[in-house]
Amino acid sequence: MGEQGRVVPARRRGLADEVADRVREAIFSGVYAPGAQLREVELSGALDVSRGPVREALLRLEREGLVRSAWHRGATVTTLTSTDIAELDSLRGTLEHLAVQQVIAHASDEDIAAIDKAADRMERAGDEHEMVRCDIAFHDAVYAAARHRRLQVAWQAIRSQVHLFLLTRIGADSQGYLAHIPDEHRALVAALRARDAATALDLFATHRRHAFDVLAGTDAADPGEEPDPPDSP
């Protein structure tokens, strides 16, 4: 029997997965800022692995939107352009609109309690990076409560980029984010618990607009333009 019609044996990718997790976490923790170079040799040495898994991991992170590669520059942490910011905001808004409607219609009291618990964690966040993690976890809980599998898959497809969006926001206005974000999420929980669709949709839209306005007021890179990357730590 020839190759056609046969199932090709799967390759083990556990090590590449772990490297991707480590590098992703380093980006989300601020170790590698937007624009920072991700050099295969340095990463393989730091993680004590060969360059093959590092290369695979960077390709995975590129598919997630966290990394960009260019022949003359290698891999760098994505710097969001003004077009990136606008596209993420509009797509996130569309998904979130449906998620809120689904939560109002289908979420159980236990689902709402899980969203409430995610909001509670924001009160204990130690720094802006932990607050961003809590912010993302809150929205994870909202999408889980929507009980819409394909909607959750769509959220997962942009989740890392939204995390990067929020990291870019705290880079522009860390104090404003820390001061206001817990109360904003408390109001979102209250509207969801009351099953008030109109108020919830309005508050979620206002919540997104605050983040977009902060970034729209910064000097975002022009579409297609990649700024010079800073030195890696």
TrEMBL record:
Pfam families linked to this entry: FCD (PF07729), GntR (PF00392)
A molecular-function term among this protein's GO annotations: DNA binding
Superkingdom assignment: Bacteria
Keywords: DNA-binding, Transcription, Transcription regulation
InterPro entries in UniProt: GntR_C, TF_FadR/GntR_C, Tscrpt_reg_HTH_GntR, WH-like_DNA-bd_sf, WH_DNA-bd_sf
Residue span, HTH gntR-type domain: 13-80
Name under which the protein is recorded: GntR family transcriptional regulator
Species in which this protein is naturally found: Streptomyces montanus
